[in-house]
Amino acid sequence: MRVFVTGGTGHSGSYIIAELIAAGHEVTGLARSDEAASAVSALGAKVRRGDIEDLDGLKEAAADSDGVIHVAFRRDLLPSGGIDAVTAVEFEQVAAFGEALAGTGKPLVTAGSIGSPGEGLGRPATEDDPVLPGGAEHKGTLRFRNAVEGAVLGLAERGVRSSVVRLPLIAHSTTDTAGFLPGLIAVAKEKGVVGYPGDGANLWVAVHIRDAASLFRLALEKSPAGKAWHAVQDEGIPFRKIAEAIGSRLDLPVVSIPADVLMLPGYFGSLAYPVTMSLPASNFLTRRTLGWEPTQPNLFADLDNGHYFSAS
Hints:
Elements: E1 2-6, H1 11-22, E2 26-31, H2 34-42, E3 46-49, H3 55-63, E4 67-70, H4 78-101, E5 107-113, H5 140-154, E6 161-167, E7 170-172, H6 180-191, E8 194-197, E9 203-204, E10 206-208, H7 209-222, E11 227-230, E12 237-238, H8 239-250, E13 254-257, H9 259-262, H10 284-290, H11 299-304
Parallel strand pairs: 1-2, 1-4, 2-3, 4-5, 5-6, 6-11, 7-10, 8-13
Antiparallel strand pairs: 9-12
Helix pairs in contact: 1-7, 3-4, 4-5
């Protein structure tokens, strides 16, 4: 299959390209700069020079392919325009792909959030749980992911074999330098303690990014239209255990942080809201339907590898 990939030089995208090529697909990666073009080439993919803002270029690339995996994210817009600016751009990109692929039955796979069905379900979220509306009551990346995920899944009604791979807050690997886990470790080093909210019983899920990449490939190859899949290795890990694992490796005390302190400006920064969330999720339907089986080290094994704690 000839696959067009956006975001191919990012954390997830680079593993996705490698996974696709290993499976025999012909991959073309979008590259805005010479540096990005070199990185895409080094992965073994063809290079399409262009910018994610060039909607006509995206349409052309999608029309020329047998399928699209879209994981580009305009993080650079956050400081000036916030999540609303990111969302507006993402909607345009999804609409462009939808226009190019409408009626073809070709696959479009994008990244979503494991939190899109929301909290408080009383059970792990399943792949069949619908995405909540992306309204103002939803904060941060969840608001963005919800709105865009809904738009992607809606393309199934237009003859696109669209699907979403819902990713957890922690997608770990030896090349993870800007995700939630490095952020938590950085806060711990700065504060001299590893904090967790309340009793720390709120549940997080995690996945090795290489396993997530294999799920993107399987969704491209096998997913029915309008489906969401869960890239999670465990249904839920108490946040306190994650904090304890970080603390033991940094030799720092692990303490409960009261809610009023947790939300103080600057204490946890942008992580203040996410660390309070509880988002258990099942991967049963993903395994059964797509045959996905995680094979990489789990979160605690990856922490044991030491790369997250090397001197900088």
